[in-house]
Each structure stands twice: as C-alpha cells, then as structure tokens.
Amino acid sequence: MSRIKELRKIVGDKLRESITDAEKLESAYAHLYGVSLAATVIAQKRGENSELASMAAMLHDIAAYVNGTYDDHAHRGADLARELLLRNALAKPREIDIICSAIYHHDDKLVKDEPMDEVLKDADVMHHTFNDLAKPVKDKELARYQALRQEFGLPVQED
After folding, report:
1. pLDDT tens-digit profile of 64-113?
2. What is the 3-state secondary structure (H, E, C) of 100-148?
3. Distances 117 to 2, 10, 100, 101 between C-alpha atoms, Å
C-alpha cells in the first residue's frame, strides 16, 4: 500500500473516532481530500515533492477535527501529525520535518514561508475559494487567491 493510501486510512480512522455528526464528517473528508488533491497539483507545477504535499494536506486540519476547535489548530496539528507519522513509520525524519512545517505554518496566509509551506497554504486557499464560488474570499486569502488564478492561467477577478 502506498504511503498516502495508508495515511488516508489513518486519518479516516481518526475522523470517525472524533466526529459523530455525519454532515461534519463528510465536510472534513471533502476538505482534507480536496486540499490534498490541490496540493498535489500545485506541488507538481512548482517542482516540489507532490507526495509530501499530499500527506501534509491530508493532515493539515487534523487537530481541529480531533479537538473540535480551530484554536491554535495549525501548531497543534503539526504536533499530532508528527506523532501519527512517527507511530506509523510513514516518513523519514527529514520528510516529517517538511510535512510538519507546512502544517505548522498553513494558517499564516499573509506570511511567506518555505516552498512546501507555501504549497499547503495555497492548496488550502484553493479549496476554500473554489469549493464554493458563491462565498466571498476571505481578506487574508485574497492575495493568494488572485496569485493562484494568475499562476493557473485563469482570469484575475476584480472585487
């Protein structure tokens, strides 16, 4: 079994343990899988490791779903991701550092960080914005959203 498939199973087990509401569980799956797919595409386009990007994306909001709150979820998520990756021997130490850095920084949308951190931030923004085009783009995500549209050859939208 590939690492990403194994990780999806582990994440699925965690989600089912933590979320009892069917609609919230479906939403969690949709977000994690959506961000994972976006991260894979963005990483490939930018010449980054798409497997690590996909893994980081599958774990990026795990703490929010497990703890039921988004309070400090990025930092807590990095710790939980490290624990899950180590316990299940899914990555080498350097890979874990890269994945956990991306998770740790993914909520800092106004700051520029390492390339893999940027992949995850942009994948998260891509899913937030393209998943429901009727919703307004959050202020903290607007610059990234416009840059992503340009990077992917989509017309830049005016507010």
Report:
1. 999 999 999 999 999 999 999 999 999 999 999 999 999 999 999 999 99
2. HHHHHHCCCCCCCCCHHHHHHHHHHHHHHHHCCCCCCCCHHHHHHHHHH
3. 23, 22, 9, 7
Alpha carbons 59 and 99: distance in angstroms, whole number: 9
Domain 3-151, CATH among 3.30.450.20, 3.90.1310.10, 3.30.465.10, 1.10.3210.10: 1.10.3210.10
* Whole-number Å distance between alpha carbons of 127 and 122: 9
Taking only the tens place, the pLDDT of each residue in 116-136 is 999 999 999 999 999 888 899
Helices (H) and strands (E) in the chain, counts: 8, 0
pLDDT tens digits along 141-151: 999 999 999 99
Question: d(Cα 37, Cα 137) in Å, to the nearest integer?
Answer: 20
* pTM score of the predicted model: 0.95
